[in-house]
Amino acid sequence: MSQPIEQFTHHFRNEHRQIRDTLLALGEAFRNRDRKAIRARLEECTRFTGPHFRYEEEALYPALVPMFGRDYIDGLLEEHDLGIDASRRLSELAEHKALSQREVEEAQHLIQQMLPHVSGCDGLAIMMEVVPEAEVDRVLHARKRAQQENLDLLTWAEGLRHFR
Ligand SMILES: [Fe+2]
Ligand SMILES: [Fe+2]
Q: In the chain, what are the domain boundaries?
């Protein structure tokens, strides 16, 4: 059985890969104005990011406050706010029957704005290597719980987020 940190890093990296690939595919679907693909990729995106954002906010980000200080962690939470707002707007655009060039560009811009959080967030794994193992266990536990409840991003954001 691998160490908690190895398990964490493995899952964390794979989740970011999945989110990265889905966002890139979503951008392509918008460029192709393929409504069916837009909806499918958007559905995947909110399904993958829901539990991921949730365990990050419930356990991972708090575990890193002693290292980074509050300000940096608040910045990560603001990036999540932007990601949630962008997902809402992309869902609206997905309902449009005929997307204008401007709307396609808006979608590209929203997706581009989210990508740096994916790579930046993945970099936190290097810091988790020096966090006490009990904290890593807590993060893995929060991850498991978030996955079991499996709320998509917008359902979680409108319900449990900030009310825990
Ligand atoms: Fe992340
Ligand atoms: Fe994140």
A: 4-156
